[in-house]
Design a protein that fits this description.
Largest sheet: 6 strands, antiparallel, barrel
Order of helices and strands: HEEEEHHEEHEEEEEEE
Radius of gyration: 20 Å
Structural class: alpha+beta
Strand content: 35-45%
Distance between the termini: 58 Å
Strand order of the largest sheet: 2-3-4-8-7-5
Number of helices: 4
Helix content: 10-25%
Shape: globular
């Protein structure tokens, strides 16, 4: 009886450990990202989806030995209110990893291929085997899918202060379908006292209305995506 009990406890422990391992690594996969810059630092925005393992909005400040090269390219044709984020888009495809490492703010240095354009939509490989170090988390939000209510809704934008205190990053929060992923850079913003939890409401999700009513003297669209969040 003692031997049987020990065997059953051993089996239960192994099943429990296997379950915990699966839970800890439930977001393994290929996690593409789009790169953007404020002119000084380089940032990576995880390309989220409504479904696992990609169901998180994550933005990190990153560092590589190609930072200045990538920043120069991203700013190549930047003009106020232009669509240069399309013509100058840079995405990366890292080696497969568990996204929970970034969710949980664990250290991560990983090799990635850098593409000019979207790596899934005709982008061209540019830099290979570049090591990206994820240094500082700016955004960490789980996407909770809510079916459309059919009513007009206010769009919510999260605000993050950057190294230059008069610059701010506005990140659209993805929620109810249909939605969109968007990042706007505000320059020379007078309201330097705003907290990181500030929300900006906007009653339209049309791209022409993406520019927000803020104290910033200049706004630039760094990223805008609707295809992955349509009905």
């Amino acid at each position: 009886m003692i031997i049987i009990s020990f065997f059953l406890l051993s089996v239960i422990a192994k099943v429990s450990n296997a379950h915990e391992h699966k839970e800890k690594h439930q977001r393994m996969g290929s996690h593409g990202m789009v790169l953007f810059t404020d002119g000084t630092n380089l940032y990576a925005n995880h390309l989220p989806l409504y479904r696992k393992p990609h169901d998180y909005q994550l933005i990190y400040q990153v560092n590589t030995n190609q930072n200045q090269n990538i920043i120069d390219y991203l700013q190549g044709h930047a003009t106020k209110l232009s669509d240069h984020y399309l013509t100058q888009m840079v995405t990366i495809l890292p080696a497969p990893f568990d996204l929970n490492r970034l969710v949980n703010q664990q250290s991560l240095v990983i090799a990635a291929t850098v593409f000019k354009g979207h790596f899934e939509r005709g982008g061209k490989s540019w830099l290979n085997g570049i090591k990206f170090e994820f240094e500082k988390m700016l955004v960490n939000k789980k996407i909770t899918l809510v079916e459309s209510s059919g009513k007009a809704k206010a769009q919510q934008w999260l605000v993050r202060e950057l190294a230059l205190k008069t610059d701010k990053l506005f990140i659209h929060l993805i929620n109810e379908k249909p939605s969109f992923d968007a990042i706007i850079l505000g320059k020379n913003c007078a309201d330097t006292a705003s907290t990181n939890t500030m929300l900006v409401e906007q009653t339209s999700d049309e791209k022409s209305s993406l520019l927000l009513t803020t104290s910033c003297q200049q706004q630039s669209i760094l990223y805008y995506e609707t295809q992955d969040f349509s009905e």
